[in-house]
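Following up on my earlier thread - several people asked me to post the actual chain instead of describing it. Fair enough. Here it is, all 114 residues.
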Amino acid sequence: MSGITGVLQFAVDGLAQQQQTIANNLANSQTPGYIAKQVSFQTSLQQALASPVGGTAQVSVTNTTNPPATNGNNVDGSQQLVAAEQTTLEYQTMVDMLNAQFRLVQGASGGSFQ
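Reply from S.P.:
Thanks for posting it. Predicted structure:
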């Protein structure tokens, strides 16, 4: 990752994957035997940023550990809806920060602000 723009882009990409995974979980909430997935990238990003020599962040997708219902499905619809809302807010925040960064670069290079 190089600079703040790279960090913000990684976060946007991770959040987009998280949104996609939540949508898939919700779409399969009634599928017998379906095991919900979860996306993790925040800890990896923090470790990469804290590394004195720079690090590489990773996005990982794992199964959740929620107990399954009688049909073997472990999707908690309420939990997924809350996660979807939180992820949407985080995504919008990261996009806003990325756009602000681009405006700073544009202004520093003599471009006009919009």
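The CA atoms of residues 33 and 72 lie 4 Å apart. That should answer part of your original question.
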